[in-house]
């Protein structure tokens, strides 16, 4: 997976080496610096490995669907790209929901252990 490509697919306005830095110390690439901001200039959460993989696959699929081998004559190419973006968004939201459910379970367990109702 190309982390830089995944991040740029998720956040097209992000500037490599300024908003984020991907580093590989021989044990695989990772995000060494994260300062990506949204339209309101708030720092967005660093994406999880699952989110990066989803974004990378979507970016690769979008590149394939935009390849010269049929894209100009394919009236559905824009729809395919929108569909790919929606699928990526859905997958990212599912990962976020899964993470939130884990956090919620941990909080509930802590509350139960401390007899807090």
Automatic annotation (TrEMBL):
<feature type="region of interest" description="Disordered">
    <location>
        <begin position="59"/>
        <end position="78"/>
    </location>
</feature>
<dbReference type="Pfam" id="PF09636">
    <property type="entry name" value="XkdW"/>
</dbReference>
<feature type="domain" description="Bacteriophage SP-beta YorD">
    <location>
        <begin position="4"/>
        <end position="63"/>
    </location>
</feature>
<dbReference type="InterPro" id="IPR035950">
    <property type="entry name" value="XkdW-like_sf"/>
</dbReference>
<protein>
    <recommendedName>
        <fullName>Bacteriophage SP-beta YorD domain-containing protein</fullName>
    </recommendedName>
</protein>
<feature type="compositionally biased region" description="Polar residues">
    <location>
        <begin position="59"/>
        <end position="69"/>
    </location>
</feature>
<dbReference type="InterPro" id="IPR019094">
    <property type="entry name" value="Phage_SP-beta_YorD"/>
</dbReference>
